[in-house]
Amino acid sequence: MRFIHCADLHLDSPLRGLEQYEGAPAQEMRGATRRAFENIVDLAIERETDFVLIAGDVFDGDLQDFNAALFFANQLRRLNDAGIRVFIVRGNHDAVSKISKSVPLPANVHVFKANKPETVTIAALGVAIHGQSFATGAVTEDLAAAYPEVIPRILNIGLLHTALAGREGHEPYAPTTTERLVAKGYDYWALGHVHAREIVQKDPWIVFPGNTQGRHSRELGPKGCMVVEADEQGIRSVEFVETDVARWQHLSIDATDLVSLDDFQAAIQSAVRGAVHDAGDRVLALRLFVTGRTSLHGRLVTSPDGSRAEICAWLNEASGGMAWLEKLKLSIAAPLDLAALAEHDDPIGFLIRKLDELAADSTALATLASPTLSELSLKIPAELREHDSAFNPLSPELQAEALATARERLLAAISVEGAQ
Length: 420
Known about the structure:
This protein has 420 residues and is an alpha/beta fold. The chain is built from twelve helices and 15 strands. It has three domains: 2-242, Metallo-dependent phosphatases (Purple Acid Phosphatase, chain A, domain 2); 246-335, no CATH class; 339-420, no CATH class. The strands form three sheets. It has a six-stranded mixed beta sheet, covered by helices on one side. It has a six-stranded mixed beta sheet with strand order 5-6-7-8-10-9, with no helix packed on it. Strands 13-14-15 form a three-stranded parallel beta sheet. Residues 1-196 form the Calcineurin-like phosphoesterase domain. Keywords: Hydrolase.
């Protein structure tokens, strides 16, 4: 017996942040969630799987039109034509209460009810699949507690959308414990909701496959599904297979020993070529972190827009157009003896001491910055301020980042002045 376990397709979910960055392949990446699911269907047919499990969040919320639903139904028909059954539980994003538009699904598909757990048995395969959908977008009770007892002498699978006892970045929906899942006696728990791939344990198997396509810079690395092999003895193997078509990745460059722009370019392009090779045929969205104390500090910090433009060109050349710069984070320092300079009784010493004091005291920083930034904050839409600290000038995180940037620009100016 062979089956695929996937979750969190989030069809037509926007890949957030693309429009902010010049040169981002926004159009190519908008269809990434659909193409990732097409890859799952291709894989199911190629591997001749017996069935596919989808552990919630097929859609990203209430459907605004029929396009995503039609796409999904058409892909399921491909599985139907290949004789592959599909079992689905709805999660917080595609709960029964949230889907106001839908299209008929083919006969090979079973969507588990939301009012109570139910079991589907496939006698020919010797397997029982237990599941329950979300009735609303915020389920706070432990659904797993009411899942049916194990059926003896066949393979038992639990299909569940849950945060277990909690996972960072995810709402604590359908909370339950590993101990409760183990106590059910099932052979495999096919979980969804958590977008990071995680094998919670192997006896029995309790698995989050992660989402099928990364959607922003916090969903890093390969994304995909699990291909599971089983027989009458139980689970034989669980294999992760990549299905994403675009990938978000962080790269770090230590500039400490780099003395020229040519050295800097070579280091970046070497790292990019390695990332492109590892990603296969995928578009890469790269967040580049540059660290270290370097003589290039003044050149990079005093002209950040120029530095970004150069790096974008280097990325394009090294990747053959497959990688683009999502964000550049400079955490470099000037080749100055800051401790000695801070002791000087002069404007530079005072400036360095004051900057260090503000960096260590978020309250003092807010007192200084808030009067100026409050007016700017009012010009930013409320929904951006509330849901993304990167758009809220009054957030402590953004103020600390702005102070660090200002500090490095001032030190760069001091370094350049001292070199003349």
